[in-house]
């Protein structure tokens, strides 16, 4: 028996980076996965590479209509939703004074409103089944300060929203947790605009993380291995914030 046998998962931002690796790991663990992304070219490529257990749906996480379509497509295809990974996100390295209203609103729309819309959209199907796991990808910027003001604000919000949803959905046996990666080896890391050596120097483990090292924690939270874990933060940062 694999850890996600007979499970149906939606992973946002699944075209690239961590979302694509999570999709691959989930499929290896027995799941069928719907990956969504704003980038349809990369999304179609990833779905084709992952095979017939993966479907791509073009999706802007900040759109309520898009969420309704993603949920309906998943239910039409598979009849149930067991796992939602709210992974899509953007990262602008801008201080408070450098952040204009447009960047602020775009970051909130994708990183925060997207998570709200996603949790609300899958809740009816999970409640009907009386089970589900929602994994919201925050950041170490959702635990302490960061020189990326809007990003930091949204990642703290995701942490609080995850706790509130865990309490609200607990009686329906829907678990909600947040994951807080540190420096993960994806193109997003380059947005820091500093050489990797300078980032690595801040990490007690002495390296950035491979994407799979976050994906394994997300798999743990998606599966019944974490059946009594809900409402909490799971930090994957090599002790940067210890
Ligand atoms: P990534 O840029 O490789 O992936 C993000 C994905 O989200 C992309 O495929 C992008 O097209 C998609 N996306 C962007 N806007 C979207 C929208 N409006 N609707 C749907 N999809 C959209 O980055 P990643 O490192 O894989 O990031 C995944 C998550 O991990 C993000 O939430 C990010 O904030 C978080 N995170 C990353 C790091 C890191 O070091 N890479 C650290 C902490 C947290």
Explain the overall architecture.
- This protein is an alpha/beta fold and 242 residues long.
- It has one domain (8-234): NAD(P)-binding Rossmann-like Domain (Rossmann fold).
- The protein contains seven helices and seven strands; from the N terminus they run βαβαβαβαβαβααβ.
- The protein has helices spanning 17-28, 40-50, 64-78, 101-129, 149-169, 196-200, 211-222; strands at residues 8-12, 32-37, 54-58, 83-86, 132-137, 174-181, 233-236.
- Helix 1 packs across helix 7 (211-222) and helix 3 (64-78) runs parallel beside helix 4.
- The longest helix is centred in the middle third of the chain and has 29 residues, at 101-129.
- The protein is globular.
- The N and C termini lie far apart (36 Å).
- The mean pLDDT is 97.
- Nicotinamide-adenine-dinucleotide (NAD) is lined by residues 12-13, 15-19, 37-39, 59-62, 87-91, 110, 137, 139, 181, 183-184, 186-189.
SSE layout and pairings?
Elements lengths: L7 E5 L4 H12 L3 E6 L2 H11 L3 E5 L5 H15 L4 E4 L14 H29 L2 E6 L11 H21 L4 E8 L14 H5 L10 H12 L10 E4 L6
Parallel strand pairs: 1-2, 1-4, 2-3, 4-5, 5-6, 6-7
Bound molecules: nicotinamide-adenine-dinucleotide (NAD).
């Amino acid at each position: 028996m694999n850890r996600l046998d007979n499970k149906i998962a939606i992973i946002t931002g699944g075209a690239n980076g961590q979302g694509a690796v999570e999709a691959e790991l989930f499929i290896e663990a027995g799941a069928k996965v719907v990956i969504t992304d704003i980038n349809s070219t990369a999304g179609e490529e990833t779905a084709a590479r992952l095979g017939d257990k993966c479907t791509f749906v073009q999706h802007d996480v900040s759109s309520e209509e898009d969420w309704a379509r993603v949920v309906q497509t998943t239910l039409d295809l598979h009849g149930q939703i067991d796992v939602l990974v709210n992974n899509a996100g953007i990262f602008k390295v801008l201080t408070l004074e450098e952040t204009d209203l447009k960047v602020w609103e775009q970051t909130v729309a994708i990183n925060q409103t997207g998570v709200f819309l996603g949790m609300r959209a899958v809740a009816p199907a999970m409640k009907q089944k009386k089970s589900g796991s929602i994994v919201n990808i925050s950041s170490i910027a959702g635990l302490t300060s960061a020189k990326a003001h809007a990003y930091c604000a949204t990642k703290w919000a995701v942490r609080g929203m995850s706790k509130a949803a865990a309490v609200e959905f607990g009686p329906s046996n829907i678990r909600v947790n947040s994951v807080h990666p540190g420096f993960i080896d994806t193109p997003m890391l380059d947005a820091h605009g500093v050489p990797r050596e300078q980032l690595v120097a801040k990490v007690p483990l002495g390296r950035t993380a491979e994407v799979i090292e976050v994906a394994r924690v997300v798999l743990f939270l998606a599966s019944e291995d974490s059946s009594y874990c809900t409402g909490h933060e799971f930090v994957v940062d090599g002790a940067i914030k210890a």
